[in-house]
Write a structure and sequence with these properties.
The protein is built from 17 helices and 10 strands. It has 367 residues and is of the alpha/beta class. The structure holds adenosine-5'-triphosphate (ATP) and magnesium ion.
């Protein structure tokens, strides 16, 4: 007998942890990778902006585009596992650079793009870049990293499922008319561009300076010939996201606002024909008694009153939370769920990650 969430850790090649800001995506992703390693798999977690102390615990001092191995002595002191655990802290800019280098015809073309001022400014800031690079890195680690399972954290964006259609948006950029015109040689582009675009470019020059506009044009032109490679890559990334080997884990807390967001995520995933494979409700307040509220109120007399009042308050929190959880479950009926209690302190070391894991992987059993 294994819990439904254990199944993901044992069988899947990719696990994507999504959810709104601050619910515990990074923590959950790390706990899942740790559990997979303990079960003998070669696991890697891709984190995004982890809290400093957790980053330290995972041996991550800086952004990186290559995973670093976490010494087994730290997570498997009794040598029970044949697995391995690696982590990286996503560096969207370096990942983007890597993509440019991979698809450039030669070093000269790669350098022309990498040195371009416009590229240097946008590669970290372009809308959706972080999301896309997370998926890009995931694809690379999945296909070339030598891992059995790659667990990815996702950024806390409001439009949080951007990463699912980020490859598509990159492709739309190539289809954009302005982009196409900018990629043409100067004279041809000016003929096709027409008065409107020429006026726009002139205005842009006046506002941001001729140099900036030249940078932008040079940037788009430098991409010449790389379009096909990018397109193919984006299609592969998208296929991996939709692959049955990929699992989506939706993380939430039982607070109303978080549940509203989780509900939105669940709906978007369904719209995108992607399944929510597990729901994790993090930072849950436990229920301490089965006694009905009316009965607790009746007992809240005499010297026992303060204790019962406290219990009544705690129970009302737990009851409210259960009602919130029921709302998300309605959206994704039948989805395996695990709850993780609110721990007494932040989760910033391997021991407390293991503690989170105990809750995640002791969920409801299935055959
Ligand atoms: N069950 C828990 N009990 C106590 N603290 C927790 C629990 N889960 C997570 N935390 C703490 O809550 C904070 C937020 O968690 P985490 O960084 O994993 O969330 P996130 O969803 O990745 O946030 P962001 O959207 O900002 O990236 C961290 O300080 C973490 O240690
Ligand atoms: Mg995070």
């Amino acid at each position: 007998m294994v819990s439904a969430i254990e199944g993901l850790v044992d069988d899947r090649a990719v696990v994507i942890c999504c959810g709104t800001g601050g619910v515990g995506k990074t923590t959950t992703a790390a706990a899942i990778a740790l559990e997979a390693a303990r079960r003998g798999r070669r696991a890697c977690v891709v984190t995004i902006d982890p809290a400093r102390r957790l980053a330290n615990a995972l041996g991550l001092d800086a952004l990186s585009d290559t995973p670093s191995e976490i010494s087994a002595a730290l997570w498997d002191p009794h040598h029970r596992s044949t697995g391995s655990l690696a982590a990286l802290m996503l560096d969207p800019k370096r990942t983007f650079d890597g993509l440019v280098t991979r698809y450039a015809a030669d070093d000269e073309q790669a350098n022309r793009i990498l040195q371009n001022r416009f590229y240097r400014n946008i590669s970290g800031a372009l809308g959706g870049t972080q999301e896309y690079m997370a998926m890009e890195k995931l694809h690379e680690l999945h296909t070339e990293g030598g891992f059995d399972i790659v667990v990815v954290d996702t950024p806390p964006t409001r439009h949080a499922l951007d990463f699912v259609d980020a490859p598509q948006r990159l492709l739309r950029l190539f289809d954009n008319r302005l982009f196409r015109i900018m990629m043409m040689p100067t004279r041809a582009s000016m003929r096709v561009a027409g008065v409107a675009l020429q006026t726009l470019l002139r205005t842009m020059s006046r506002v941001v300076g001729r140099e900036v506009v030249d940078d932008v044009i040079a940037f788009f032109r430098a991409f010449e010939g790389m379009e096909a490679g990018f397109r193919e890559r984006a299609a592969h990334v998208q296929a991996l996201i939709a692959d049955p080997e990929t699992a989506f884990v939706l993380v939430t807390t039982p607070r109303r606002d978080a549940v509203d967001e989780a509900d939105y995520f669940a709906r978007r995933l369904v719209e995108l024909s992607l399944d929510v494979d597990a729901l994790i409700v993090n930072r849950v307040h436990p229920s301490f008694t089965d006694v009905a509220p009316a009965e607790l109120t009746a007992r809240a007399i005499g010297p026992a009153e303060p204790a019962y009042r406290l219990l009544i308050d705690l129970e009302s929190v737990a009851t409210r939370e259960q009602a919130e959880v029921a709302r998300v479950l309605e959206r994704v009926p039948g989805t395996p769920m695990a709850t993780v209690p609110l721990l007494a302190s932040d989760v910033h070391d391997l021991a407390s990650l293991g503690h989170i894991g105990e809750h995640l992987f002791a969920g409801p059993s299935v055959d």
